[in-house]
Specification:
Elements: H1 3-9, H2 17-23, E1 25-31, H3 35-47, E2 53-57, E3 72-73, H4 78-88, H5 90-110, E4 123-128, H6 138-149, E5 155-157, H7 160-166, E6 172-178, E7 182-183, H8 186-199, E8 203-206, E9 209-215, E10 220-226, E11 229-240, H9 246-249, E12 256-265, E13 276-279, E14 284-289, E15 292-297, H10 303-306, H11 315-329, E16 337-347, E17 354-357, E18 362-366, H12 372-389
Parallel strand pairs: 1-2, 1-11, 2-8, 4-13, 11-18
Antiparallel strand pairs: 3-7, 4-6, 5-6, 9-10, 10-11, 12-15, 12-16, 13-14, 14-15, 17-18
Helix pairs in contact: 3-8, 3-12, 4-5, 5-6, 5-12
Bound molecules: flavin-adenine dinucleotide.
The site of flavin-adenine dinucleotide (FAD) has 40 residues, from α3, β2, β9, β12 and β16.
Length: 390
């Protein structure tokens, strides 16, 4: 064989012998280094202590939903749970909420709460005039939540005195508190998971955009683009954890992208609340961030426009978020907007996450439906078990 034949035949002419022999063939290759990819890698490591495990991540740092979210560690507001019971039925709604609750407790076992700045401040929901009938269902939602938390008093309607102290506008007619909610620092959560992965001898290759995945008879293969060129990587098991981008690699899957937009205020003197709050069945969410307030949501104002793979902002939603802040949440406070960003979520029609095999060597995990902090650890346990049982 002459030199040109040899180059043409090589899987990866851009790689040296050393790179080829140490990196070209791995046991488990995970695509996507968000909370799901990292948690999946850690669960696989528990089951396969000696396996070569690599994560390929296209972004140099962050850019997935994991570092663009709101940091709520929650399992569902009262109106969201009641809405899910009405739409999907009690068993289905219970399954969704229970997975989130169990996932949160696994997350706190995996990541030391102080490392991810977990704050168990509780969560609450603002009830306005058109939602007032939900108050009549407080016993129903408590009975439902008892199946999850074991506590018959998970939710309570706060007293008028407590409600006034929050400083919300008069549009807020009641507040329902959920004592089991908390919040994290999403940047530290991501960094903690990356450190755990590295400590567990899991290789993370940033700047690796997976263009295509194939299943061959005896292994899977990935076509990867990097700033140095393109190459092929072989793996016994491939797990796709690319969230909203899943359909780019597996178009047959029932997942749709949904953009979420977030703003953060300047520091507010005398901020009168701490914790995580929901409005409008969870379509709006806000929380304290020290003495700042983070607010996100409003996707329900334009579902069609927000079903996009594009980062960015829409003026309808940005204006609605700012109005919500100035008129409902912080009516008497002075502030400016210091940060604004967007991120992409992956939605399934029944709000359930998917953990499945696409072929002999290729698996996928998707459909956190905007609740990945809560769900990631459980989903990771499920995919690692599925692979072990296959
Ligand atoms: C605005 C917003 C607010 C949210 N708020 C909350 C919240 O408060 N609480 C909560 O529980 N959840 C929240 N979520 C949802 C949560 O962030 C997600 O469910 C979770 O981060 C999903 O994790 P993931 O690992 O699946 O996805 P991601 O974090 O998106 O990770 C997927 C990774 O795959 C990479 N990737 C994609 N395609 C490729 C490819 N072809 N090759 C290589 N790499 C690829 C991406 O770069 C990305 O890093 C929010 C989401 C958004 C957008």
């Amino acid at each position: 064989m002459n030199i040109n034949d040899c180059i043409a035949k090589a899987d990866s002419p851009i790689q040296s012998y050393w790179e080829y022999s140490s990196f070209q063939h791995v046991d488990i290759c995970i695509v996507g280094a968000g909370i799901i990819g990292l948690s999946t890698a850690l669960e696989c490591r528990k089951r396969y202590p000696d396996a070569l495990i690599t994560i390929l991540e296209k972004a140099p740092h962050g850019h997935g939903a994991t570092t663009r979210n709101a940091g709520f560690a929650c399992f569902g507001s009262a109106t969201e749970l009641l809405h899910d019971i009405d739409v999907f039925g009690k068993d289905h709604a219970l399954n969704i909420a229970n997975e989130r609750f169990l996932g949160l407790s696994s997350l706190l076992q995996r990541c030391a709460p102080e490392k991810i700045k977990y704050e168990a401040l509780g969560g609450a929901e603002l009830i306005r005039a058109h939602e007032i009938s939900y108050l009549d269902r407080i016993d129903e939602v408590n009975a439902f939540a008892e199946n999850i938390t074991g506590d018959p008093h998970t939710f309570r309607i706060v007293s008028t005195h407590e409600q006034k102290a929050f400083g919300f506008s008069d549009a807020v007619q009641a507040v329902i508190m959920n004592k089991y909610e908390g919040q994290v620092h999403s940047g530290y959560l991501h960094a903690t998971l990356e450190s755990l992965a590295r400590a567990a001898d899991i290789r993370i290759e940033h700047g690796s955009d997976v263009l295509q995945v194939n299943d061959n008879d005896d292994h899977g293969s990935l076509h990867v683009s990097t700033c140095n060129g393109e190459y092929a990587l072989h793996a016994q098991t491939i797990i796709l954890c690319t969230n909203a981008m899943m359909s780019k690699l597996a178009p047959e899957l029932d997942i749709k992208p949904g953009r979420g937009q977030v703003i953060v205020t300047s520091p507010i003197s005398g901020l009168s609340f701490q914790g995580a709050f929901h409005i409008d069945e969870g379509y709006y969410y806000f929380r304290s961030l020290g003495d700042r307030v983070l607010l996100g949501g409003g996707r329900n104002l334009d579902f069609e426009g927000e079903e996009t793979y594009e980062f960015g902002h829409s003026s309808i939603i940005m204006e609605a978020l700012e109005t919500m802040l100035r008129e409902v949440i912080l009516p008497k406070k002075e502030f400016i907007i210091d940060y604004a960003w967007s991120g992409l979520m992956g939605f399934t029609p029944d709000k359930k996450s998917r953990v499945s095999s696409l072929s002999n060597h290729v698996y996928c995990v998707f459909g956190c439906n905007g609740m990945g902090i809560a769900l990631a650890s459980r989903i990771a346990e499920r995919i690692a078990s599925l692979i072990a049982d296959s």
